[in-house]
Amino acid sequence: MKQYGSFDDATRSFVITDPLTPGPWINYLGNRRLQAFISQQAGGLCWYKEPQTRRLTRYHWLPAPSDRPGFYLYVRDHQTGVVWNPHFAPTCAALERYACRHAPGVTSFTGERDGVRITVRYFVPPGHDVLLWDVTAENLTNAARKLTLASFTEFGLLDAARELWWCYLKNQVGFHFDAAENWIRYDYHVFEAPYTPAIFMSCTEAVSGFECSRDAFCGKGGSLERPLGLTAGTWSNSQLPGGGHGAGVLGVELELAAGATRRLGYVLGVAPDSTQAAALRQHFSQVAAFDEAHAALQEFWANRATVLQASTGDAHADRMINTWNPLNCEVALNIARGISTDHMGVDGLRFRDTMQDALAMTVLDPARAAERVKLVLSFQGQDGSGNFAFWPDSPDRRVSLHPVRCDNTVWPVMTVDNLVKETGDIRFLEESVPFREGGAASVYEHIRRGLCYIDDRRGPHGLPLLFHADWNDGLAIFRDERAESVMLGMQMVYAAKLFAPLARRLGRTEDAAWAEALAVRYTEVLNSDVAWDGAWYARLLLSNGKRIGTAGRSEGRIYLEPQAWSVISGVGDFEGRGRRAMDAAREHLDTECGLMICAPPYTGIPEPTDPLTGNAPGTGENGAIFCHATTWAVIAECLLGRGDQAYAYYRKMLPSVAAERRGQDHWVREPYAFNSTVLGPARGDDFGAGGIGWLTGTASWMYVAATQYLLGIRPDWDDLQIKPCLPAAWGEVTVDRRFRGQLHRIALRRRNGDIAVSRCLLDSDPQ
Ligand code: GLC
């Protein structure tokens, strides 16, 4: 089976050696303000904070070829006359050697042709809003060589919508080469624009030629694949003061003696105004500054890696737990379901998604999690309601309340409970956070109102109303706002069980008693015949008296979520129902590639009065393997003490395992990032192919499932609680875990069916 790339665990990187991967295999760069994604062909996009109205460069999602353009370095070899790219695209000139190395925060390329080796390292440092292209050119021959190097990026119009209204904007943007500053300056004067920054592209070397115009760079009849001027060795030195399609093309002539090496850098920068932009350019006018910036970035990731490092004996699990899952968590929390090669960057942040994305971050970076939690809560209504999506960097702090997701406000307590146990600082609950309409209340009060909001909207059986959908967006196909959600009912039980002890700690005994009574009340309904179907839990109680997710159905007979949540919430403790429900999930939903979200998938109209199914069978919420939901199955199996089953589900979800199963071509997606879904058996030959990469709640929840349930290391008020549920395959496990400033080494060993836990403190951790 064809291998396009493989892991280099020692350097925490994934190395791609063939640029023609089955799809763009991207990495994310960024410092939480300036962010970018970049593929194995250097395709990608750069934006500042929020990709809907602040995209600095342009990426074409729809036209073919896909994955164009990006952050290109062109090389013109004066000896051969060939124009090529070390990242292969867009010239696609053959390379004798190509390697793309994706690592947390850094992507680098090495391309070699005709005795010239070019290395480009792309990254955004923590302290500066610049995307740096750190270039090294080597002459591998014993004769002098002459090269022209040129950067290329296509400037975007910041606002995604304005990209479509391009015509009127020609007059309001300008691109100038300024020899004194050695940069191309992008002036943006669009009236009523929410954001008017100073953007530039500069170089550490004197520029020998430039193009501010994309079209001049391509030349008449030319293209990015074959830029005519560069191929002919001429520059038109185009400026676009009156607007046009702007580009950042800066050419540099290099004379390389036999065996010589030269280093130079390009800077794509953004600042609030031109004075600060000039200072930024000045700071990065020497490559020494690139080294400092790179060191700072490495320190950030090295620090992140000290939070938790596991050694389980399973290379797939180790590299995911130690490197790729934390990276995926960082990306998902910063970007939500925002922007990737699948998402066009107009979705904002989502209340429930971001709250879940913050869950793993409570361990990885509690301060960051706290910041994000407060941000999400600041978009909560005074009545306790959540929202569908919000845009914190829009001038009017835009919020979208529709469609209504009934589960929005069940999540905050899960994240906050983990956060205060991680830090040991309950005062976080008392911090004041505004509501979206104004006014403010404590974090605790936000959580309380959120739970009340759900509890106040119950249906005739006493379970929460569905409105448009709960966690499972696909339930919208039933168009039954008065349906009741079994899953959310169970989540409310779990939430109430977390909330009550928090309330007691704050002396709010009435609230605690309310939550405890709520848990009892919901549990009774959930274990009545209304929700229990004999061998598993139903999914929805429709307002017409029928039910979804029951044995009597020919399609959508069983859903995964309520089975897993019955165990997590403790609802299923009654008569061993949780265990039986998870057995049923295994029997009806498990496949060689993972657990389907429901089965059998809907093929058409479930009821004569119902609308057509939304997703095709075997995709999305209609019978795909849903990785996010599987995280709860892993947790549930651990809580049932069935480590082998938990591990089996966990392992199937690992992208590196999935990519090996039927090969990287079949998997299609990056072998190092979680997917939201995997195509289900109903997709025939495509069964097992990856769905949407990176931006999924799987990242956060799977990190929690692996570290807090399989490895069983959970923060608690006084100390770490260690309750592992190891599979038989893991004989001996070591975990280094930083907790409240101290580094703990925890060894887990299997002994006569039990697991012996030993732990010691390593040298006090300076972090
Ligand atoms: C996607 C959505 C998330 C939803 C899930 C299940 O991941 O972003 O909000 O809960 O699908 O439908």
Write the layout of secondary structure elements.
Layout: E1 5-8, E2 13-16, E3 27-30, E4 34-38, E5 44-48, E6 55-57, E7 72-77, E8 83-84, E9 97-103, E10 106-113, E11 116-123, E12 130-139, E13 145-152, E14 155-158, H1 160-164, H2 166-169, E15 173-178, E16 183-188, E17 198-203, E18 209-213, H3 214-218, H4 228-232, E19 246-256, E20 261-271, H5 274-283, H6 287-305, E21 308-311, H7 315-335, H8 351-364, H9 366-377, E22 389-391, E23 398-400, H10 412-423, E24 432-434, E25 440-442, H11 443-455, E26 484-485, H12 486-505, H13 509-526, E27 540-541, E28 547-548, E29 558-559, H14 560-569, H15 577-589, E30 590-591, E31 594-595, E32 598-599, E33 625-626, H16 627-639, H17 643-653, H18 655-661, H19 664-667, E34 677-678, H20 698-710, E35 713-715, E36 720-722, E37 732-739, E38 742-751, E39 754-761
Antiparallel strand pairs: 1-2, 2-9, 3-4, 4-5, 6-14, 7-8, 7-13, 9-10, 10-11, 11-12, 12-20, 13-19, 15-16, 16-17, 17-20, 18-19, 21-37, 22-23, 24-25, 26-27, 27-28, 29-32, 30-31, 33-34, 35-36, 37-38, 38-39
Alpha-D-glucopyranose binds next to loops.
Explain what this protein looks like in three dimensions.
The protein is α+β, with helices and mostly antiparallel strands and 767 residues long. Helix content is 30%, strand content 25%. The strands form twelve sheets. A ten-stranded antiparallel β-sheet has the order 1-2-9-10-11-12-20-17-16-15. It has a five-stranded antiparallel β-sheet with strand order 8-7-13-19-18. Helix 16 runs antiparallel to helix 17 and helix 17 packs antiparallel against helix 20. The chain starts with a strand and ends in a 6-residue tail after the last strand. It binds alpha-D-glucopyranose. Alpha-D-glucopyranose (GLC) binds at residues 337, 350, 353, 471-474, 621, 628, 676, 696-697. Alpha-D-glucopyranose binds next to loops.
